[in-house]
Amino acid sequence: MGVSVSSMAHDSDPYSGDAYLTDTRGKVVRNAYDECWRTGSWTPAKEIWGCGGAAPKKDAPKAEVKPEVKPVAQPSGPQKPAFEKVMLSAETLFDTNKAVIKPEGKASLDDLVSNLQKFPEVELILVTGHADYRGSDKANMTLSQKRADSVKGYLVSKGIAANRVQAEGKGESEPVTHAGDCKGKKGSALSSCLQPDRRVVVEIAVQREVKSN
């Protein structure tokens, strides 16, 4: 008793919940840092074993048994990604507080389109929008999601299959700057200091192994 159903599931098992992104096999997707990719529905109560949740408790064995071989989480693709993670400044892509991609922003995304066309083995990429801390949490979350959706929309308009792109907004929850970095700054100086936090990150989530002939 006391162990929830979600905490007893392991990230290498097929996952049917809504707290984590899954690939076509139903396995939890991991990002470039080998962290389970959470969705906007994630809460601590939905954490699963292998993604931060505790392993289920087991009764002590009554007799000597061989050491347990723990299951190894299945990778979502080969170790070497087809292309490196892309981090785009929000100022390059959008006007202030807007989610419509500027012409110069589209030019920055064309290299990404080329990579996705060149490497069909990349089955899924994650497009994540981020904002700085100014403004309300709700407004920042909404803006970051709209910007991620705009990037996905542009890629799809260039012929990339919609099911190869997952868009998500993180709002101000994952800043690049540290507390105190911009202390005492105001106006344009503060905006410039917080610029690294306003970004769109694109990274490979699922890449299948390509066997050479």
Top keywords for this entry?
213 residues, alpha+beta, 60s Ribosomal Protein L30, Chain: A, 2 domains, disordered N terminus, porin activity, OmpA family protein, OMPA-like_CS, cell outer membrane
Write the layout of secondary structure elements.
Layout: H1 5-8, E1 86-89, H2 90-93, H3 103-118, E2 122-130, H4 137-157, E3 165-169, H5 187-193, E4 199-207
Parallel strand pairs: 2-3
Antiparallel strand pairs: 1-4, 2-4
Summarize the structure.
The protein contains five helices and four strands, in the order H-E-H-H-E-H-E-H-E. It has 213 residues and is α+β, with helices and mostly antiparallel strands.
Explain the overall architecture.
It is found in: Cell outer membrane. Its main location: membrane. InterPro entries: Bact_OuterMem_StrucFunc, OMP_bac, OmpA, OmpA-like, OMPA-like_CS, OmpA-like_sf. Residues 56-69, 167-184 have a biased composition (Basic and acidic residues). One of its GO terms (molecular function) is porin activity. It is a single chain. The chain is of the alpha+beta class and 213 residues long. The chain folds into two domains: 1-55, no CATH class; 86-207, 2-Layer Sandwich (60s Ribosomal Protein L30, Chain: A). Helices cover 24% and strands 13% of the residues. It has helices at residues 5-8, 90-93, 103-118, 137-157, 187-193; strands at residues 86-89, 122-130, 165-169, 199-207. Strands 1-4-2-3 form a four-stranded mixed beta sheet. Helix 4 links the parallel strand 2 and strand 3 (165-169). The model is unreliable at 1-8 (pLDDT under 50).
